[in-house]
Amino acid sequence: MRNSTSRAAGAVLGMALAGVLGATGVAGAQELPSAPVKGAAAAAAPAAVVEQVQAAAARQQALAPAARTVCYAAHVEGIGWQSAVCDGAVAGTTGQSRRMEAVVIATGGTGGVCANAHLADIGWQGWACAADGKAVTVGTTGQARRMEALGIQVGNGSVAAQAHVAGYGWQNVVGGNPVYVGTTGQARRMEALRVVV
Q1: CA pair distance 51, 162, nearest whole angstrom
Q2: pLDDT in tens, 35-76
Q3: Under-50 pLDDT residues of the chain
Q4: Is 14 strand, coil or helix?
Q5: Residue spans of alpha helices (H) in the chain
Q6: Distance between alpha carbon 98 and the CA centroid of its chain, in Å?
Q7: Do 169 and 135 contact (CB within 8 A), yes or no?
Q8: Nearest to 153 by CA among 122, 127, 135, 171
């Protein structure tokens, strides 16, 4: 009985620490962005895309108010902005050799989201953050520039992501807070993305 009580207390303490460290991590991402690089400004997603991603997150949250949700839309070479998808669905393309260039992400029940894109000829763009229900955009549009990697962080709890990368296919799912998917230093394009919170 004593061991199970200790384990339960340890689990509760661990969850409390994870929540505190997660919130601290998001604040740190806002305070320590990468150095600005010419041409590294985040894509300005059209208002309709931002609204669609935010509305999708709000619908998911309304279906299960106590649940955590993430919705996102990708900007893809030769296609443009795709429709919003949520909670592990695929954004981007596979089997078409098309690069992802930007992504819009919104969450519900996570305390907000931060994202950082690694871009061809630029490197890490710098963290951009948004509160729950609001969307954050990273990457570029109109520059024919591939997104090579993506970092995602939430305000509390954890996040899991998986990238489809040229020449590799689907990478292993990565979980934590923050998480990084894709590659750097290999000139490989991200082609698709899945995210779960």
Answers
A1: 24
A2: 334 445 567 899 999 999 999 999 999 999 999 999 999 999
A3: 1-39
A4: helix
A5: 2-31, 47-63
A6: 19
A7: no
A8: 127
